[in-house]
Design goal:
This protein is an alpha/beta fold. The chain has helices at about 25-45, 80-90, 110-120, 140-145, 170-190, 195-205, 220-225, 235-260; strands spanning about 45-50, 55-65, 75-80, 95-105, 125-135, 145-150, 155-160, 215-220, 230.
């Protein structure tokens, strides 16, 4: 059961500029705009409102940064920024839905899978939209939402687990890789319409990529394989999210009525 909290308690979320602006004061207005801008710069996210719906937009771009800091020239999404936001969104009584926009080359497997597991376990309505690419660990992230979309020009790259740095060539290392790979296969198959065997087949394909193992799927192919739910754009994803929010609200209202009668 979600805790009842006021607006100030949701300290992880950026403060939307419409919540407390003083139109008679240019100073306060500039402060609100600055807060929203800083939120985009620091965490790549923003909360926006249309009509009755308050939507949080989370972007996953570049490389997903895990336990090690990547070089400054890399575009990154930091999991220590994303995880608190997801917790705050789920606990907020104000945020109605989450749209996650992905254009990622992958990154830290455990950090990406941790984010995907959090999203898949949320009761707040969620949709994802893949733009450009949703590669490697971006695949579990794309399928973790209630409904997933991909643009026709986007691609998804499926390949086996890789690791940089010192790797011991012993059976235990190979077993660890296989276990991690199975965790990804199981998560993707549980959260999409693709079978585990088909996903493994694409992951280990040798005729698709030059000097690499794996498969590249176009937007349409990803939908045909059952990996992504629908082809679509931003407006399609938002329309779907609004519909899920309204359905969720109607179900809550009906439950409250039935409870009061009982």
């Amino acid at each position: 059961m979600k805790n009842n909290k006021n607006k100030r308690d949701n300290f992880f979320l950026p403060s939307p500029p419409w919540q407390s602006p003083d139109l008679s004061s240019g100073e306060n207005s500039q402060s609100d705009d600055s807060s929203a801008l800083n939120s985009i710069i620091e965490s790549g996210s923003i909360t926006v409102k249309k009509g009755e719906h308050l939507i949080h937009c989370l972007t996953v771009i570049g490389q997903i940064e895990g336990h090690y800091i990547l070089p400054a020239q890399n575009k990154t999404t930091k999991y220590e920024h994303v995880i608190p936001q997801l917790v705050a969104i789920e606990e907020s009584d104000e945020v109605d839905g989450l749209i996650m926009i992905l254009n990622t080359v992958g990154g830290d497997i455990e950090a990406g899978l941790a984010i995907a597991e959090l999203v898949s376990g949320m009761k707040t309505p969620t949709v994802s939209l893949v733009l450009g690419g949703g590669h490697s660990i971006g695949v579990p992230l794309a399928v973790s939402t209630d409904r997933s979309f991909i643009t026709p020009s986007a691609t998804m790259t499926i390949h086996p687990v890789r690791m940089n740095g010192l790797v011991l060539g012993v059976p235990q290392t190979l077993s660890y890789f296989e276990q991690m790979q199975e965790r990804i296969v199981r998560f993707v198959s549980d959260n999409s319409d693709i079978s585990p065997d088909r996903f493994r087949e694409m992951m280990l394909a040798t005729g698709e990529l030059v000097m690499d193992v794996g498969t590249v799927l176009s937007g349409e192919a990803a939908v045909n394989e059952g990996l992504i739910d629908s082809l679509g754009s931003l407006s399609d994803a938002l329309t779907c999210l609004y519909e899920m929010i309204n359905e969720n609200k109607n179900n809550r209202d009906n439950f409250d009525i039935d409870t009061s009668k009982g």
